[in-house]
Every structure is written in structure tokens, then in C-alpha cells.
Design goal:
The chain is α+β, with helices and mostly antiparallel strands and about 475 residues long. About 45% of the residues lie in helices and about 15% in strands. Strands 1, 2, 3, 4, 5, 8, 13 and 14 form an eight-stranded antiparallel β-sheet that branches.
């Protein structure tokens, strides 16, 4: 979904042509797999960080077009709203020093981005949902000036038959909204982790990634407030799912086919099953004929980019042009600090590497993994989660007694040093022991400030600038 498009209107002939090419490319992907044509060696890590542009009152600042011109960095690109941008990183081979290298890459880019923001009398912030955003900020006038976003909005509403988007989220408070655009999606910013995996092992890592979602999210929640309402610990999850609420070919009544989804089940043999599911169950949102050669699967990739699985498989290409598969772990929110996010990456990379070598499908049925995910999103560290032993555990206990030791073993197997492992996983462990995620800190600080969102956000930004991990922040 990253590329810009040239057109905003499409005919039935456009839809038929795109569908025909999508069928052909999906078949070609299977043929490529049967011929073992994917790059098959090693693991490569990367990330995407969605960030907010704010004014000095801590409000959204819709200046990303001018900001990106001033920054002139091809790794920093627009997001859906004019007050969001996305920071990307060059890929890094997984092995000794990978986490430190990812941290240094993000810090370098972040510092450069922040300097440009300050030169425009703005500030850059990383947080899952901005507590000070107002409903009025999320309007079409604040949509980024790219045709693909206009088309996405129009196509979602068209496929809904003009029905308004309904937001219904209940936590400590409740929020009910009706919207006629997809701009609420812009309120959900994330830290997305990428892991390129060998093709033969991709199915194992995909299923293991689904199992990691709940402990990751319980340990990393940072989105507990929206429009002043105290909702889920990770309100990004229900908000994103509802903001682009669409079903598949069988319509909105089908509960397991959604544009934003945990999925319909584990894969059995190959990630090709996911791409075939894309073809069979999801109408095309952007029926734009692509100019790239069919061997680069441009229609398949564009279609896949408009289906937002919480764990999404991607087809990519290395510097030599060889295709590879990577996984995009999408459950983590942005923030609270760079160190917190790289610590979360350590938990994911280590845990998925450990679980991929276990029979997670037998030990943790898919329906249980999905229920775990929503429990973690709703309750954070207070959630109760079922783990591989078939027993229910408080999320804190599961992380301290099972997930963190498994992540340590996975990082050792990846070749990381004990020092590097303990530096990053120690941050997660301390956060869990104190019970202070970003979401928990926001709620505690807000209560201490008698509900003053602006002062709470000022304190959040001050702590973020200082760089200490969130478990060390005073409430």
C-alpha cells in the first residue's frame, strides 16, 4: 500500500483486468514455490514506525507535506493523515548485534526527523493513540495529499454500500461513533516489525507469530485513551478493526473475513494459503493495472497491502532481485521510547524463533490464540491468557515464567550475546514486574492530574525526550 497511484476512478473493465492478473500472479506464486524459487537462507529484520507531528500544545499538526519536503529522506514517507509520517529502516541480518543496530538506526533517523520538526516549530511523537486528538481533527481535510488515500476511503465506503462506519468500544468508559470516512484509522499508529524467513520455514514462523501476539501486546500496550475515554489497554485494536470494517465476498455477516483481522486459522503447509485466501475471499479495493513485470507480483502485492492482518505475510525482493517471504508483526503500538520499542522487538524475535520450533498449533489452538490476543488488547498485563501448557495464567506470570525465558532461548539460538539479550529483554522484564506499560502510565498519570490530558501529554513527551524506558517513569 506504500506506492502512489495515478488514477482515482475505475471501470468494470479495470476490475476484470485486475482480477485476471491477480489470478495469474497467485498461480505463478505457487509455481515459484513448487520450483523452490524463493531465497531460502537466513533471517533478516526490519521495522516501520508510524509517528505523529504535533504543535507545541500537543495537538496534531497537519504539515506532513511540507515536513517531508524539508526532510528529504526516502525512508520517511506520508501516512493516511497530514499529521502522521512513517519511518522505515534498512534491513539487518539477524545475529549478534542486530538489536543494537536496529536501535542505532532508529535513533539516528528519529533525531534527524526531530531536528527538522523543531525547525518547523513542531515536534515528533511516538504513541499508539494520541490522547489529545479530537474527533474534529480526523476529517478528510486532514487526509494526506495522495490519491491512494482518497481511493481507499471511497472504495471502503462503496463496498459498504454507503453504510456509515460504526465505532463501538467499551472499557472503563464507552465510546460510540458514526463516521462516513476512514479517518479514524489515522488515530492508530504502530511499530511494525518485519522478519524475513526461509521459505521452507515460513509457515512455522507465521503460526508462531500469531501465538506471540497476546504476550507481546500485554507487555507493550500504549493506547488506553481516545477522545478522553478510558477504553482498552490497546484501543488501537478495536479502533483499527472498526475504522475500515469490511467483510469479504459474502458480505459483512461473515465474522472471520475482515479487512483488519487476526485471521481465519493457522496455515497448514505454506504461506501460499494466505495469498490464495486473499484471492478467494477479499474483493479488490484498488483495481489499478500495474506496470511492473508480472514476475514481481505487483497486483498480488497491492491487493495484499489492502488486507491488514495483524500478522501479514509479504512478498519482497532482495538486492539481486530474488523473491523472499517476510512476516510483518503489526500488533505493537508506537512508543513510549526507542528503547522500549527495541526491547519489544527483542521479545518478538526471540519468542517467535523459539515457538517456531514447537508444535504451537497442537498446543495452542487457533481460537485460543485469537481469544488471547483480544484479552491482551483489552486488559494488558491484567489479562488472563492460555499458554502452551493448556492452562490459564495471569499475563504477568506468563511473561515472566514462560515467554521471557523462551525469548531468551530464541535469541541465543539466533546468535545474540548474553549481554545484548539481557540489555533489551531486561527492559521488558522490569516493565512487567512493575506493571507499568505505556498504557498503564497514561492512566495513572491522568488520574494524578485530575484528568488533564494536555498536562499528561506534556509529561509523556518530556519522558520520551529523556529516553528512559517507561517502567522508570514517575507517575
Amino acid at each position: 500500500m506504500g506506492q502512489e497511484i495515478a488514477r482515482t476512478e475505475f471501470s468494470e473493465a479495470d476490475h476484470r483486468a485486475f482480477a485476471s492478473r491477480l489470478v495469474a500472479e497467485t498461480a505463478a506464486l505457487r509455481t515459484l514455490a513448487e520450483k523452490r524459487g524463493f531465497a531460502g537462507e537466513g533471517f533478516v529484520a526490519g521495522f516501520e514506525l508510524e509517528a505523529w507531528l504535533l504543535d507545541h500544545a500537543g495537538r496534531p499538526n497537519p504539515v506532513n507535506e511540507a515536513y517531508l519536503r524539508a526532510l528529504a529522506d526516502p525512508l520517511v514517507v506520508p501516512e493516511l493523515s497530514r499529521f502522521n509520517v512513517e519511518l522505515n529502516a534498512p534491513p539487518v541480518e539477524v545475529g549478534a548485534g542486530v538489536l543494537a543496530e536496529l536501535e542505532e538506526s532508529l535513533l539516528t533517523t528519529w533525531d534527524a526527523c526531530q531536528r527538522v520538526a523543531h525547525g518547523m516549530d513542531a515536534v515528533l511523537a511516538m504513541i499508539g493513540i494520541l490522547p489529545t486528538i479530537r474527533d474534529a481533527d480526523l476529517n478528510l481535510a486532514n487526509m494526506s495529499a495522495m490519491k491512494r488515500f482518497d481511493v481507499l476511503n471511497a472504495q471502503v465506503l462503496q463496498q459498504r454500500g454507503g453504510a456509515p462506519i460504526e465505532i463501538d468500544i467499551a472499557g472503563e468508559d464507552a465510546l460510540h461513533l458514526r463516521r462516513h470516512d476512514v479517518m479514524l484509522e489515522a488515530a492508530t499508529t504502530s511499530f511494525q516489525l518485519h522478519l524475513q524467513v526461509p521459505f521452507d520455514a515460513a509457515a512455522r514462523y507465521y503460526n508462531a507469530s500469531l501465538a506471540t501476539c497476546a504476550p507481546l501486546l500485554a507487555a507493550a500496550a500504549n493506547s488506553s485513551l481516545l477522545f478522553g475515554h478510558r477504553l482498552w489497554q490497546e484501543t488501537r485494536v478495536p479502533l483499527f478493526e472498526q475504522a475500515v470494517e469490511l467483510g469479504g465476498y459474502r458480505g459483512l455477516a461473515e465474522p472471520t473475513v475482515r479487512r483488519v483481522t487476526f485471521g481465519r486459522g493457522y496455515v497448514t503447509d505454506s504461506l501460499l494459503e494466505v495469498f490464495e485466501e486473499n484471492l478467494e475471499h477479499y474483493p479488490v479495493l484498488l483495481p489499478i493495472p500495474q506496470n511492473e513485470p508480472a514476475a514481481r507480483f505487483p497486483h498480488l502485492r497491492l491487493h495484499n497491502g489492502a488486507i491488514w492482518r495483524w500478522v501479514r505475510p509479504l512478498v519482497g525482493f532482495d538486492a539481486a532481485g530474488r523473491p523472499h517471504l517476510r512476516l510483518e508483526q503489526r500488533v505493537l503500538p508506537a512508543g513510549p521510547t526507542v528503547l522500549d520499542m527495541i526491547a519489544n522487538a527483542a521479545l518478538y524475535f526471540g519468542l517467535v524463533h523459539a515457538l517456531a520450533r514447537q508444535p504451537v498449533e497442537a498446543d495452542l489452538p487457533f481460537d485460543v490464540a485469537r481469544a488471547n490476543f483480544y484479552a491482551a488488547a483489552r486488559h494488558g498485563l491484567a489479562a488472563e491468557l492460555t499458554w502452551l501448557d493448556g492452562r490459564r495464567h495471569p499475563a504477568r506470570d506468563l511473561l515472566l515464567e514462560a515467554a521471557l525465558p523462551q525469548a531468551r532461548a530464541g535469541l541465543v539460538a539466533f546468535g545474540l550475546s548474553t549481554t545484548e539479550i539481557e540489555h533489551y529483554l531486561g527492559v521488558v522484564e522490569a516493565r512487567v514486574r512493575r506493571g507499568q506499560t505505556g498504557a498503564a502510565w497514561q492512566l495513572r498519570r491522568l488520574a494524578r492530574l485530575d484528568g488533564d490530558l494536555e498536562r499528561m501529554m506534556d509529561d509523556y513527551l518530556e519522558n520520551q525526550r529523556a529516553g528512559a524506558p517507561v517502567h522508570e517513569w514517575n507517575t
